[in-house]
Amino acid sequence: MNADAVLRLLAETYPRARTALAHETPFQLLVATMLSAQSTDAGVNRVTAELFRRYPDARAFARLEPEELESHIRTLGLYRNKARHIIATARKLVEEYAGEVPRTREELERLPGVGPKTANVVLANAFGVPAIAVDTHVHRVANRLGLARASDPLRTEQQLMAVIPEALWAPAHHWLIWHGRQVCHARKPRCEGCPLEPHCRYARERASTREPMIGGS
Questions:
Q1: What span, in angstroms and rounded, lies between the C-alpha atoms of 173 and 133?
Q2: Can 188 be counted among the known catalytic residues?
Q3: In CATH, which of 3.30.200.20, 1.10.540.10, 2.40.50.40, 1.10.1670.10 is domain 3-16+133-207?
Q4: How do residues 50-94 score in pLDDT, each as one tens digit?
Q5: Least buried of 28, 180, 182, 212, by fewest C-beta within 10 Å?
Q6: C-alpha span between 69 and 191 (Å, rounded)
Q7: Which of 57, 92, 135, 152 is labelled catalytic?
Q8: In this model, does residue 214 exceed pLDDT 70?
């Protein structure tokens, strides 16, 4: 697998790839990303359009009670846990960071409900810090292509950081997500016609299982 060739093709195929989560501030991106767990970006955007109009910043969220926030986000998965974590995070931001979102991974991961993926999304998209956020799409596509060989997102992240130049960490994250959504689907990947097929480990392995056995009846 030629990582440089894979990255070049991804860049050519998805030149406008960026986060699909609607936001205007780092705090809004943080909330949207927390809401996106087990939910679609489109579903999150439908919720946050009104949510952010009513509560635009950390101070507004900090004044809410979980039950109030639940009423706005109940169409999303895990909405009770999300409401509790988001309000706790907003209050911590107000108390310790003057309502602003911190700019380091360590500080972000100390916020309630914020893990490595969410922290990396915020770092890369809100602050331009090189980071690779590994969601289900990135994990699946990276391992199918052969950019990684890992059974969990953390190891996938570490392996991607080793083979992708740091300057491309953030855009590569978006390229892999878009490829996962548009072509390399979880259940029925569209290998035929995929521009990455010649470089893809998964496509080669799938093709080899379909080859007829020589001398078979």
A1: 6
A2: no
A3: 1.10.1670.10
A4: 999 999 999 999 999 999 999 999 999 999 999 999 999 999 999
A5: 212
A6: 42
A7: 135
A8: no
d(CA 40, CA 25): 20
Q: How far is CA 64 from CA 31, 35, 88, 97, 168, in A?
A: 14, 16, 10, 18, 39
Choose the catalytic residue: 41, 57, 92, 117.
Answer: 117
Q: Tokens representing 81? A: 């846990």
Show me where the domains of the chain are located. Answer: 3-16+133-207, 26-127
In the residue annotation, 92 being an active-site residue is answered as no
The answer as to CATH 1.10.340.30 being correct for domain 26-127 is yes
Task: Answer yes or no: are the C-beta atoms of 179 and 144 closer than 8 Å.
Answer: no
pLDDT at 210 (0 to 100)? 64
**Alpha-carbon gap, residue 137 to 17, rounded angstroms:** 14
Rounded to two decimals, the pTM is: 0.88
